[in-house]
Amino acid sequence: xxxxxxxxxxxxxxxxxxxxxxxxxxxxxxxxxxxxxxxxxxxxxxxxxxxxxxxxxxxxxxxxxxxxxxxxxxxxxxxxxxxxxxxxxxxxxxxxxxxxxxxxxxxxxxxxxxxxxxxx
Length: 120
Known about the structure:
The protein is an alpha/beta fold. The chain has helices at residues 14-32, 74-92, and strands at residues 3-9, 40-46, 62-67, 99-104, 112-113, 116-117.
């Protein structure tokens, strides 16, 4: 059950955002083997004036936060980063260096699903 938060500079079209969501989800399915229905994603758009980046970054700069159940291997994490970045580059021409991905793995006891605490 990955939770996905995508932050990008405001002004992209609905089609662009739909494609971005599809690329990220397809990358999770391909690299981590999640079920196709397991789709919890949101896009947060930020005004350019409020989105500071390093020099040389384009207006396509994107931050993707993946919050995952713990237990993925380093290889799986490396693969999901590579696959999502490639899909975004190929589908939306986002420069690879403008895709930042970070993963969070809170312990299961920090997850609540349907009013029930998740446990090992």
